[in-house]
Amino acid sequence: MTDVKELLLSRIRDVADYPEPGVMFKDITPLLADPAAFTALTDALAEIAANTGATKIVGLEARGFILGAPVAVRAGIGFIPVRKAGKLPGATLSQAYDLEYGSAEIEVHAEDLSGQDRVLVVDDVLATGGTVEASLQLIRRAGAEVAGVAILMELGFLRGRERLEPALAGAPLETLITV
After folding, report:
1. Which NCBIfam families does the protein's record reference (predicted)?
2. Tens digit of each residue's pLDDT (9 = 90 or more) over 139-170
């Protein structure tokens, strides 16, 4: 796994002062453009899905879609998008949550999850944890079980893991890289 982490880290680019001064943005587009690195990432996340017994992958808008869909294919399980409010047609369940400077809301199709599902949440970055926390609440409200959370990169200094501990309720949180 050390070789995979080194490969992934080598393909993540730092962009200073984006999206605002003082922020060091972690850009994963070079990783996605490298077939070997993207395959290694997909395989590592699919292994987590298998180890948790997940029956569905939930990908969080937007980069969680890019990561979650190939993981679901590799693991041989379904993929469910969790989107920003107003982006899904038909009946949805929604969950509001607070951001650093305001609030947001995410949604899932009401019929996409059931009590038979064990759901692994997949996303690219764990920062403050607000979106992941809201997705866990949404999954449980839909009647599904949270199998765990799998993240490419955790920004440890923002302490999102600490925020998520109560919401995880014992489900595992696995990150491939912590910076």
Report:
1. apt (TIGR01090), PRK02304.1-3 (NF002634), PRK02304.1-5 (NF002636)
2. 999 999 999 999 999 999 999 999 999 999 99
Average pLDDT of the segment spanning 27-49: 98
Q: Which pTM does this prediction carry?
A: 0.95
Which of these, 150, 58, 102, 104, lies nearest to 94 by C-alpha position?
104
One-letter amino acid identity for 113?
A: L
Q: Are 146 and 171 in contact (CB under 8 A)?
A: yes
Instruction: Provide CATH code, domain 53-178.
Output: 3.40.50.2020
Distance CA(138)–CA(156), nearest Å, equals 24
Q: Catalytic residues, which ones?
A: 63, 100
Each residue's pLDDT tens digit, 49-83: 999 999 999 999 999 999 999 999 999 999 999 99
d(CA 28, CA 162): 24
Question: Which string of b and e fits 126-145 if b means at least 16 CB within 10 Å?
Answer: bbbbbbbbbbbbbbbebebb
Strand ranges, E, within the chain: 13-16, 24-27, 56-60, 78-84, 92-99, 102-109, 118-126, 145-154, 173-178
SS3 23: coil
